[in-house]
Design a protein that fits this description.
- It holds the Pfam family DUF7874.
- InterPro entries: DUF7874.
- It is a single chain.
- The protein contains 6 helices and no strands.
- It is mainly alpha-helical.
- The chain has 2 domains: 96 residues; 48 residues, no CATH class.
- Helix 3 runs antiparallel to helix 4.
- The relative contact order is 0.10.
Length: 153
């Protein structure tokens, strides 16, 4: 449980520079923009966050969710969106939309699929070489180690 909290803090620190970069890119010098431009900028920001984080994938928000967050956090009507408002909007939208299960499906596929495939291959080619009681935990541990090294878990 402690590792999960540390991982969330690490991801939060990874997200902050991306949000700042996207704010500067999309809102830095634009005075007048439409709702479509705003939605496009949020979608591009979510895409950049997904690329950086890796296995955790955030969903693209619904238009009405984004509109509600914008109305709630943008105080100056007719004024330029501030960096703090952009961060609050993005944080609320990501919290509301959640994450997709793609990363979790991949992990489960690897954790169960690799050991099962390795066991079937061992049974076919060298059934008596290594006992199954030792072989399965070793292959599972190696899979977890590889997934950790590739930042998938």
């Amino acid at each position: 449980m402690g590792q999960s909290l540390g991982s969330d803090e690490k991801k939060g620190k990874e997200i902050e520079p991306i949000i700042e970069k996207c704010y500067n890119e999309y809102f830095g010098n634009i005075e007048d923009w439409s709702t479509g431009d705003f939605y496009h900028a949020i979608c591009r920001t979510v895409e950049e966050i997904n690329k950086t984080i890796g296995s955790t994938q955030f969903r693209v928000p619904k238009t009405d969710t984004l509109e509600q967050a914008y109305q709630k956090h943008h105080q100056g009507k007719g004024k330029q969106l501030t960096k703090e408002e952009f961060q609050k909007i993005l944080r609320e939208v990501i919290w509301d939309t959640g994450v997709t299960g793609i990363g979790a499906k991949d992990i489960l596929f690897y954790l169960f699929g690799v050991p099962a495939t390795a066991l079937l291959m061992k049974q076919r080619f060298a059934p008596k070489l290594i006992p199954n009681e030792a072989f399965i935990p070793v292959v599972t541990s190696a899979t977890v180690f590889l997934l950790a090294k590739l930042n998938k878990i």
